[in-house]
Design a protein that fits this description.
alpha+beta, T-fold, eight-stranded antiparallel sheet, four-stranded antiparallel sheet, membrane, metal ion binding
Amino acid sequence: MLSRRFLLLVVLACFGALGCRGTQRPDVTFVGMCMGTSWKVTIVRDGGFDADEVPGLRAAIESELDGVDAAMSTWRADSELSRFNRAEPGDGVELSEATWEVLDLAREVHDLTGGAFDPTVLPLVRAYGFGGGEASTTPSEEELVELRARIGLELLIDRRPILDKSVPGVEVDLSAVAKGYAVDRVHDALVANGVERFLVEVGGELRVRGERPDGGPWRVGVEDPRTSTERVPYAIVSLSDGALATSGDYRNTVELDGAVVSHLFDPRIARPIASHVASASVLAPSCARADALATALAVLGGPAAVELSATAADFEVFVVERDGERLVEHASPGFERCRVPLD
């Protein structure tokens, strides 16, 4: 996967920087690399359950992660999306149920946010030097006109299980959902294996179930966007069941024509975002949904994000915006209820 233009790594778990002070160490931990980033699963022994005795549990975790990567990577030439992106109109590509599920979610978030999220924006991303593209200058107006003609969900032709395109050069990138979706797949695999208390984290996006080793809720944090090297928490929330994903503009930028350009793009105008959003975090039952919404809300900005959360009522938001040297917070009431003081 992209390693990635949405490289968040802005979420810190109970282990690591926040620590689990005063508690026993988690009983079982699996770590690895997949989709161009790190992953970690922390499991609590519970009611006599011993994760070490579950045959192939690590293999089950890696199978879910590898399956998402094989289907949705834009870096692997043999992935479903890479084959679709190379295809010409009329040469549709058969997609797996998993890829269709993520594409449907992407369309749902696109509609919910008025087009602030669009998985067909990849040609624009590459034109600015992200996502494997190369750029030394900002695209010209003529180039932007050509790029806009290749962006839009209406250019995709749904003939399930076949996905086709109506014009050449249309590409799909599900990286803003895939890590969260991978977290959900691992979550479901663990539950199917009898695991009830755990934390799953893939590249900064995470989901928890049950309680941590000391019996309390998991504490997870949103990284301070003012730090360029050290990863320190800016806000901490308490979770027992649910997911947290964050999108930020401070880890992945390029300089074009003397200006710093964010890796986050507004598909509605086919340009990098011009807002002052430093980071946007979403709490939701599903990590895939939280992942996609975090990207979209970074485009919309704080006030609109809080308003949308109140309307939708199935996710909570926390947006940090820059105002000169200050940081300004926009949080939904539900997020504030989950928030705990920094130590």
